[in-house]
Amino acid sequence: MDVTDATAATDAAAAPVSAPGRVAAPDEGISHEELVLAARNHGLPLEALRYDVTPPGLHYILVHYDIPAADADTWTLRLHGRVRTPLTLDLAALRALPSVTHRVTMECAGNGRARLTPRPVSQPWLVEAVGTADWTGVPLRTLLAEAGVEPDAVEAVFTGADHGVERGVEQDYQRSLSLADATAADPEVLVAYEMNGAPLPPQHGYPVRLVVPGWYGMAHVKWLTDIELTDTPFIGFQQAVAYRFRRSADEPGDPVTRIAPRALMIPPGFPDFMSRTRVVRPGPVRLEGRAWSGRAPVTKVEVSTDDGATWQSAELAPPDGGPWSWRHWHTPWTATPGRHVLTARATDAEGTAQPLTQPWNRGGFANNEVQRIPVACL
Fold first, then answer.
1. Is the pTM of this model over 0.70?
2. What is the helix, strand, coil percentage profile of the chain, to 5?
3. Please, which residues have CB within 8 angstroms of residue 88's CB and are 6 or more apart in sequence?
4. Which pLDDT tens digit goes with each residue over 75-120?
5. How far is Cα 105 from Cα 302, in angstroms, rounded to an integer?
6. 177 in Cβ contact with 212 (< 8 Å)
7. Beta strand pairing status for 198-199 and 244-245?
8. What angle do CA 215, 219, 224 make, to 5 degrees?
């Protein structure tokens, strides 16, 4: 059997267990399969927005396939392809190289998907798929300089150790960056081995992962084992099929790349268990949260306590965490008895503001429609 026949046979065998992407019917509820995903992957509890740096156990998680078994003693990273000197590094060799630490806010590209109508069937995120960490590692451009990039190289392809099948395609998780993005000084891509000053937790890519500041989470390849420089664009599944903005299944779509601006509020008061409706007492209430963008620095956050009818500017904290980290914001509110809907919206230095309603796309990507928090003042 030749390679083409073997691939066809594998795809045919996978078809019954790996359905095509689809959009939910108008009245279709969350499926058993989506609940399985939701149980495996978790978002940031919104009250944890109080932390400048998210504790690892509270940082959002999305694992495409399985968390692979990884042994730091036998792990190696191979750098090859269109380079003059191929490299194979173990963890000790990687740690011996000059390191840097960057504070980076990371957000899943599907954050907000479950709020769309009709709903794309996949991991059913609301607004909590985000977190901020201090990532320590070696700049990717340092490794590429040591290997020596050939003049005809155009992309760097990153392979993780996680393996699975998606929409009938068996694969290792792979993504690529253009050579310009891979070698940029700002944002500087990291080959990271620490999160918040400790070794990466297994679910966050132990022992080594990629960190691409400003980009949605699909670019931050975990359990990184291989970097290949190529002289042609990468057309693997996660690059050319998944993570594209499409309105119909048959269009090529535009790639999902940098994080759109977003502000989230720490829900004030205390919650009803099931509905999560917040209860506050009449009088002064401090409204606060975080705002970020992967396109340009956040320059303004506005808050509404009447579901967007009126807005007031919030006070933004200095960008002490660096250009790729979220910023704290706060504003006072005098709560009055009754029902209220609280919301916040961010605007970045390019003038891009969060929308009040979100244009629909088939994958449910980059839905940064404003958060809405129902509040009962009693």
1. yes
2. 15, 35, 50
3. 76, 77, 78, 79
4. 999 999 999 999 999 999 999 999 999 999 999 999 999 999 999 9
5. 20
6. yes
7. unpaired
8. 140
